[in-house]
Amino acid sequence: LFAGETDFLKGVVAMNGLPPDDRLEVCFAGRSNVGKSTLINALTGRKGLARASNTPGRTQEINFFTLAQSHYLVDLPGYGYANAPLAVVEKWQRLLKQYLSGRANLRRAFVLIDARHGIKSVDEEILKLLDTSAVTFQCVLTKADKVKAAERGKILDQVRAKLAKHPAAFPEIIQTSSEKGDGIATLRAVIAGLV
Ligand code: GDP
Fold first, then answer.
1. pTM score
2. Could you tell me if the CB of 33 is within 6 A of ligand 1?
């Protein structure tokens, strides 16, 4: 799947802009700066494919990429900007809710969590939304290279305990480092294995 071509398809700002749901889809969500663009670039092997959306007021687009003509990879806008205008946050939440509850071909959401910090309250909001939308989600820990082995166990326990409270959570946690390449093959295999 990841040996095939990956291309940017389009940025979507409203439900009527969504591409037809004619192929399997996975989406990526995460707090801004969690390492989402770096991970998508590592997964697809294309530097610069996904760009960090570091401007709070910027148009919040849902970015669609095609994977080998058979899948969509969807990059959801980063959340949790400290200074994001309320109107922007509300517009984005509305679109996100509509997207998550209405996308028949969406097989799994990958929620990126910084391996140093674990699940924070800002992440809980999207986990709850995934529960109510009945979208199976899987946690991907990012920047694992920044965490010492001794600390890793503690964070994993925290994440596991929090996931246990979410009916839509897939129990297995994937630990990744885009820097070192850890977990990238695992994540690719998980996506390729979805039916
Ligand atoms: P986004 O806002 O979620 O798209 O975050 P970015 O992908 O732009 O990453 C935010 C920052 O974290 C950048 O400075 C990246 O270089 C850094 N980063 C991303 N992934 C990793 C990783 O696996 N290890 C380390 N050490 N840094 C990372």
1. 0.96
2. yes
